[in-house]
Amino acid sequence: MTNRRNMAYIQIRGVAHYYEWVGRKRQGDSKPVMVFIHGWGGSARYWESTALAIADSFDCLLYDLRGFGRSRLPQTPTGLDYEMETYADDLAILLDSLGLQRVYINAHSMGSSVATLFVNRYRELVEKVILSCSGVFEYDEREFAAFHKWGSEVVKFRPSWLTFLPFMDKLFIARFLHRPIGSAASKAFLEDYLMADEEAVLGTLFTSVSKKATEVMPKEFALLQMPVLLVSGQYDRIIPAAGARKAAALNKRVKFVEIPQTGHFPMLEDSDSYLQEVREFLGINSRSHELGITLG
Questions:
Q1: Helices (DSSP H) in 11-81: which residue ranges?
Q2: Which phi-psi region, left, alpha or beta, contains residue 120 (left: φ > 0; alpha: ψ -120 to 50)?
Q3: What is the pLDDT of residue 26?
Q4: Which of 31, 152, 176, 233 is the most buried (most CB within 10 A)?
Q5: What is the DSSP-derived secondary structure letter of residue 30?
Q6: Residue 292 pLDDT more than 90?
């Protein structure tokens, strides 16, 4: 498959947001739109292989969240906070600016929290949702405080020269994985983490893992009113599968799937199994995928 990509920037509340289309040939294509949302410290880059794999059936919209990847913060303060709800509103503005009235969503990790809040506030815009590596968890004051202290110290030490150290990318990504991924992907993860704006990285560290999140997210999962596929990695140490099962149990519309022998990035660690679950959920059978036929 050729790499069919169309990249651009769009202003959203004073911040130039990077976005790109994968698979779309021209405005007005008849295919449905799938929006991809990345997680903490990352960018849309790690979704590219998944988007390319379903580009025959979907126009895939990838974008970098405010302060991450190529969506750099301006030098002048925006006055915006880093609550997950605010990022959900950013997405609503993006879709409105692009004239998109109905979409599918595939989100990962912190992006899944943004997506869950988004679909409950703008449910008329969403057809189906895929949440990868998401879930609910209990609040532990001591544990959370230790995590925030450790995270704050780590985030403040991000010299660019780390990218030139041999095997640093492998060391950095190792705690997220159960299976190894390609060198290009691991290098991209490290680069994205190092280039993310400190204000955004720290801000979302405190809002995505918080007492408020433990109280809000279970309610949000219970409110979901469209078909949802919740995918978890069997050995995910960041958001364990047990938390995903608890989330799925809150709502009969949520289908839970666990990808064996994977960690926090099942879409990269076992792309075949991940895509099989995604295609089944979306109604893309193997024959239509081979022929490039859109949803039937």
A1: 48-54
A2: alpha
A3: 64
A4: 233
A5: S
A6: no
H or E stretch including 33?
Answer: strand 33-37
Q: Nearest Cα to 170, choosing from 189, 157, 155, 150? A: 189
**Token digits of residue 32:** 């449905």
CA distance 111 to 90: 12
Could you tell me if 195 and 221 are in contact, meaning their C-beta atoms sit under 8 angstroms apart? no
Q: Give the per-residue pLDDT at 9.
A: 97
Residue 203 CB neighbour total at 10 angstroms: 18
pLDDT surpasses 50 at 61 = yes
What is the reported pLDDT for 77? Answer: 87
For the CA atoms of 116, 243, 51, 9, the dihedral, rounded to the nearest 10 degrees, stands at 50
pLDDT in tens, 217-246: 999 999 999 999 999 999 999 999 999 999
Backbone angles phi, psi at 101, to 5 degrees: -105, -20
Sort strands 15-22 and 5-12 into parallel, antiparallel or unpaired.
Answer: antiparallel
Closest CA to 267 of 296, 232, 293: 232
d(CA 25, CA 78): 34
Euclidean distance between CA atoms 224 and 220, whole angstroms = 7
Which tokens go with 26?
A: 């021209």
> What tokens does 48 get?
């590219």
Strand partners, 232: 258
Beta carbons of 58 and 33 less than 8 angstroms apart: yes
How far from chain centre, in Å, is Cα 20? 15
Residue 210 pLDDT class (50, 70, 90 cuts): very high
pLDDT at 254 over 50: yes
Each residue's pLDDT tens digit, 259-288: 999 999 999 999 999 999 999 999 987 544
